[in-house]
């Protein structure tokens, strides 16, 4: 059974997270025109899902959580001896499905060897193995449906207090208690890391590495 009780102690009322602008009934060609007009050095992140375009301007809380979760994933990958290619907020674009999105973090881990050392072609290569989205405020884009439609195997969503982990099963997401990529790590450990990182990222990193090494040695 999946636990849904929030574990992070910053009150939701204290979190702003993002500013969003949504455009409905926009064609794929219209989305591409806006994308080209804004250029690659824009600050808003774009998500387009079959007629709906959302522009998200991340605020401090959003960016901090994205950095902390990214740091957590990197430490776990290193300590468990995995390999990884991080592509950050690279645009995942699928014109044939009229879907495009810029996640907060995206990673190739299981499929790292297939994309190592070169630029990814999303028309031919698999999607990222793990995608992270921070959605503290309401979004008009159904992120679960969007990422499931492009075949992302594992999807993490954090709303400022609770982390939801989804695994793709039969072309739809099922919420699970443990990450398929890091099955030995309880979700409580993720919350503990975020809490510590909000005070000191360096100390949080040291503590997490020490815990994983104890786990590997059988002392946990």
TrEMBL record:
Residues 28-179 form the Putative restriction endonuclease domain. GO terms for molecular function: endonuclease activity. SUPFAM superfamilies: Restriction endonuclease-like (SSF52980). Keywords: Endonuclease, Hydrolase, Nuclease. Pfam families: Uma2. It comes from the Bacteria. This is Uma2 family endonuclease.
């Amino acid at each position: 059974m999946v636990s849904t009780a929030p574990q992070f102690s910053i009150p939701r009322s204290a979190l702003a997270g993002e500013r969003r602008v949504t455009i409905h009934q926009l064609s794929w060609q219209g989305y591409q025109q806006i994308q080209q007009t804004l250029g690659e050095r824009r600050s808003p992140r774009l998500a387009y899902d079959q007629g709906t375009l959302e522009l998200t301007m991340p605020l401090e809380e959003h960016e901090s959580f994205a950095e902390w979760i990214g740091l957590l994933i990197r430490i776990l990958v290193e300590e468990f001896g995995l390999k990884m290619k991080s592509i950050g907020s690279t645009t995942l674009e699928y014109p044939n499905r009229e879907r495009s999105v810029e996640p907060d973090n995206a990673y190739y881990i299981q499929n790292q060897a297939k994309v190592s050392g070169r630029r990814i072609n999303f028309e031919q290569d698999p999607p990222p193995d793990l995608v992270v989205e921070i959605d503290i405020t309401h979004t008009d884009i159904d992120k679960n449906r969007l990422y499931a439609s492009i075949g992302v195997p594992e999807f993490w969503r954090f709303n400022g207090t609770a982390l939801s982990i989804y695994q793709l099963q039969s072309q739809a997401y099922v919420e699970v208690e443990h990450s398929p990529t890091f099955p030995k790590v309880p979700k409580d450990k993720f919350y503990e890391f975020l809490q510590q990182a909000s005070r000191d990222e360096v100390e949080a990193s040291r503590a997490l590495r020490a815990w994983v090494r104890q786990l590997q040695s059988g002392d946990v």
